[in-house]
Amino acid sequence: NPIQAPELNKCGTATNLNNGEKLDINCCPPISDRIIDYKLPPVFQMKIRPSAHRVSPEYMFKFNTAIDRMKRLPKDDPRNFMQQANIHCAYCNGAYDQPGQGTLDLQIHNSWLFFPFHRWYLYFYERILGKLIGDPTFALPFWNWDNPKGMTMPPMFVDPKSSLYDKKRNQEHLPPAVVDLGLTNSTDTLQVVANNLTIMYSEMIRGNSDANDFMGQAYREGDESSAKAAGSSERGSHTSVHAWVGDFKDQPSGEDMGNFYSAGRDPLFYSHHANVDRMWTLWQYFLPSNKVPDKRITDTDFLNTAFLFYDENAQLVRVTVKDCLDNLRMGYDFERIDLPWLDYRP
Ligand code: C2O
Question: Residues near ligand 1 with C-beta < 6 Å?
Fold first, then answer.
């Protein structure tokens, strides 16, 4: 059977998965007794997510204002910045149990739920930001770390005066440091860029022989989560970027990006995941498909998995995986950027 949406009133203590200790923060959302089954609204105008390295000053100003307003919402408003960050903690650090399965944790990483869960998470995050600035066309920027022109932290996130700034990042990886998808620690920048492209080629194309290789393995009601079940993209570039941004030197546990419970506290997280989400779209619709002719997973346990989120009007909604398989139906697309890894055979 599919994993059911968590029961918010049974949300409990979360665990720091980097060290196994109980966390002393409460990452449970406010409770609501009304749950609405979410219907995707009709799309009147496509939102275009831009590359974070290419946005205009006007865009930066809007984004900055939206995040600032999110931070100023009342602490118990489910759309508040910290509440949004805690969504990640609740779904990833064992605060929720699988309904009807005793104390078996719900864990949306390391499986075929990875892409769908984060897609819905960003979807509502983006709508909340748009609502806060009265701009329904607002679209999150993606951190284009798969292209040499995007392989540094995007400038707008590293200005200490900006609401997009987070001080809990690896200080040695601020620009101009080049993102290192293989975590090689090499100081030879050209070598790192070449290695990044090789990694992208292999996790997007070469390494996948079926849809689960890319998406992640099945995860059904009653299953225990296993790190071995992550798909190529989750395991590879996705995790490396978390570890590369997080501060493992001066923070106790890789905060913010290097730890599940705190990752969502860094505004950069949502742009990182916007690019991860873009990888899913590229893989589905734009990549040569000779090796994986059918990119759809049709298993109903996958399609009917449900999650809960608060929408831009602070209403609790239940969403399912089957409604998030096509980003265009969800009303957003990505700025077209070339894919230098496409033919980057090692
Ligand atoms: Cu939910 Cu990038 O992790």
Answer: 88, 92, 109, 118, 238, 242, 263, 273
Q: Which ranges constitute the DSSP H helices of the chain?
A: 57-72, 81-92, 114-132, 189-201, 211-215, 232-233, 239-245, 260-263, 268-285, 300-303
Do the interacting molecules here have an ipTM over 0.90? yes
Burial (CB count within 10 angstroms: exposed 0-12, middle 13-18, buried 19+), residue 247: buried
pTM strictly above 0.80: yes
Closest atom of ligand 1 relative to the 109 alpha carbon: 1
Residue of 117, 260, 302, 334 with catalytic role: 260
Domain that includes residue 157, residue range: 8-334
CA 242 to ligand 1: nearest atom: 2
Residue reference for tokens 């509502």: 124
Residue 341 lies in a domain: no
Is 273 among the residues known to form the active site?
yes
Q: What angle do CA 68, 246, 110 make, to 5 degrees?
A: 100
- We report the CATH number of the domain holding residue 92 as 1.10.1280.10
Domain count for the chain, please give it.
1
Residue nearest atom 3 of ligand 1, based on CA coordinates = 260
Nearest ligand 1 atom to the CA of 273 is 2
Over residues 61-103, the pLDDT tens digits come to 999 999 999 999 999 999 999 999 999 999 999 999 999 999 9
